[in-house]
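G., the chain you wanted modeled:
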Amino acid sequence: MSEDAYARAGVDQGAADSAVASLVRALGAIRLERPSRQVDLPGHYASVIRIDDRTGIALSTDGVGTKLLVAEQLRRFDTVGIDCVAMNVNDVICVGAEPLAMLDYIAIERAEPAVCEQIGVGLARGAELAGIEIPGGELAQLGDMVRGFDIAGACFGTVPLDEIVDGSAVRPGDVVIGLPSSGIHSNGYTLARSALDGIPLSEDPNDRLGRALGDVLLEPTEIYVKAVMELLRSPIDVRGLAHITSGGLRNLLRLAARVGYEIDAPLPVPPIFELIRERGGVEDDEMHEIFNMGCGFCCVVAAGEEAAALELLERRHPGAAAIGRATDSVGEIVRP
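Predicted structure as tokens:
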């Protein structure tokens, strides 16, 4: 990936990858006085811990990132809780698990009841959309460390061990169905804010977006739980599930099968991405590495089951469409 635009905006992706690798190495040194209960799912979207011989707990944690700075600029905090829920539950469903609950963690410079109430409104709405509970959390006042606030969550769900979806069943010819994003979601905001700097958030530049820029940037991340759970409970052969976040459609390669993917009919690209590309001078490949480009989630189903899967998924996500197929070109993503 060309990191020029993202690096100029302040994100060194190479350093981040190295930092994660260092953390993983350190955690790999954990020694227990019992056998590990962790299911082997390296690089997947959620971790799974065995409870017994039949049941696993799926775990994920994530936050909202610098989208929060847009919320602070607009003094609108009632949607970022939806983002926090979405970023967690959309990962948990990728292993075939049903999300059950999430805990939130809010680190804030100074506890303001009105702000925290708005954050809570968003968390509650996100929980309803995902069908989960939020039984508790933590609010930490860290004025010496934090300017503004940060919010993150940790989600868990359950999955029968013999029903884990890790992508290992994907075969060349299987169909990739894309579910539309609601916009930028919660990744790439450092670059988006840099590229769009100078445009008032209250304006729609040249009437390109259909509404004010601030409204577009704060559009909550789509939650795909209910549609995906209905798909998993249907007779359709679901072989892989991928949350399209940072990394774009290359996130399909996090699935376990030794295949590649040809994306020959991508979903429409919302105009906000074209605006970022133009104003930031961002190359096409880098845009597709950083942003979802209109596709927020992918379901890989067996060849021949495309029509049934689309009929089900379109009920909750109009615009869902077959965007490509798995190929025998291992590790390759081909797109127009």
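The chain has a mean pLDDT of 94.

Shout if anything looks off.
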